[in-house]
């Protein structure tokens, strides 16, 4: 089940962060709390039973949706959860609420890159030494509404705004 991020989710989001990212890339609990509140309208968690299996934090910057962070607990990967989460941001493009969805990804994260490329994202910039350990990153962008709609056909939609 997809629903909006809530303050009570932050400790669970932090656990998924710790399982998903290098220690130097993990956001602090305080920053996650801020992002969940500030970007809460477009930030979601995926609940599987009683477990927070993944999350996405998307902020609107000008006319674009910036996927700040997205992760799925390793135990729940390869089940379509990442796609469902990514589609919450892509739906903003498909609905005409933004003109672009963009994100950054490690050069070594080929699994995530494959998901993004299958969704229609294109590499628009190499970010030299973007990560704290010196690894390059890539900025990926999607502007094609049709690709966004097609990729997200049949994907679970978030619960109503009240959630």
Task: Summarize it.
The protein has 163 residues and is of the alpha+beta class. The protein has 5 helices and 7 strands; from the N terminus they run βααβββαβαββα.
Description:
- With 163 residues, this protein is α+β, with helices and mostly antiparallel strands.
- It has one domain (2-152): Aminopeptidase, CATH 3.40.630.30.
- 31% of the residues lie in helices and 29% in strands.
- It contains five helices and seven strands.
- The protein has helices at 10-20, 29-38, 81-94, 110-118, 145-151; strands at residues 2-4, 44-48, 51-61, 64-72, 100-106, 122-127, 137-142.
- Strands 1-2-3-4-5-7-6 form a seven-stranded mixed beta sheet, sandwiched between helices.
- A hairpin with a 2-residue loop joins strand 2 and strand 3 (51-61).
- Helix 1 (10-20) packs across helix 2 and helix 3 packs antiparallel against helix 5 (145-151).
- The chain is globular.
- It starts with a strand and ends in a 12-residue tail after the last helix.
- The mean pLDDT is 93.
The CATH topology is given as Aminopeptidase
Q: What is the H level of CATH, i.e. the homologous superfamily?
A: Gcn5-related N-acetyltransferase (GNAT)
Which sequence of SSEs, written as H and E, runs from N to C?
EHHEEEHEHEEH
Distance between the termini: 11 Å
CATH class: Alpha Beta
CATH architecture assignment: 3-Layer(aba) Sandwich
> Percent helix among the residues?
25-40%
Would you tell me the overall average pLDDT?
93
Report the count of strand segments. Answer: 7
- Percent of sequence in beta strands: 25-35%
Strand ordering within the main sheet? 1-2-3-4-5-7-6
Structural class, by secondary structure, is alpha+beta
Shape: globular
| Domain module count | 1
Pick out the low-confidence regions: none
DSSP helix count?
5
Instruction: Report the sheet with the most strands, covering strand number, pairing sense and barrel closure.
Output: 7 strands, mixed
Query: Over the alpha carbons, how many angstroms does the gyration radius reach?
Result: 15 Å
Enzyme class: transferase
Family: Belongs to the acetyltransferase family. RimI subfamily.
Protein name: Ribosomal-protein-alanine acetyltransferase
Pfam family, one: Acetyltransf_1
């Amino acid at each position: 089940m997809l629903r909006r991020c809530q303050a009570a989710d932050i400790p669970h989001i932090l656990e998924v962060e710790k399982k998903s990212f290098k220690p130097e890339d993990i956001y602090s609990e305080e920053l996650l709390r801020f992002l969940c509140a500030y970007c809460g309208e477009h930030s979601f968690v995926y609940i599987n039973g009683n477990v927070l299996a993944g999350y996405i934090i998307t902020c609107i910057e000008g006319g674009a949706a910036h996927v700040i962070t997205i992760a799925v607990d390793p135990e729940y990967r390869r089940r379509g959860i990442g796609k469902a989460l990514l589609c919450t941001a892509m739906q903003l493009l498909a609905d005409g609420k933004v003109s672009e969805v963009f994100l950054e990804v490690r050069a070594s994260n080929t699994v995530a890159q494959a998901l993004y490329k299958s969704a229609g994202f294109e590499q628009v910039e190499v970010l030299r030494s973007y990560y704290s350990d010196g690894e390059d990153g890539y900025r990926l962008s999607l502007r094609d509404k049709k690709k966004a709609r097609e990729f997200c056909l049949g994907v679970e939609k978030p619960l109503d705004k009240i959630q």
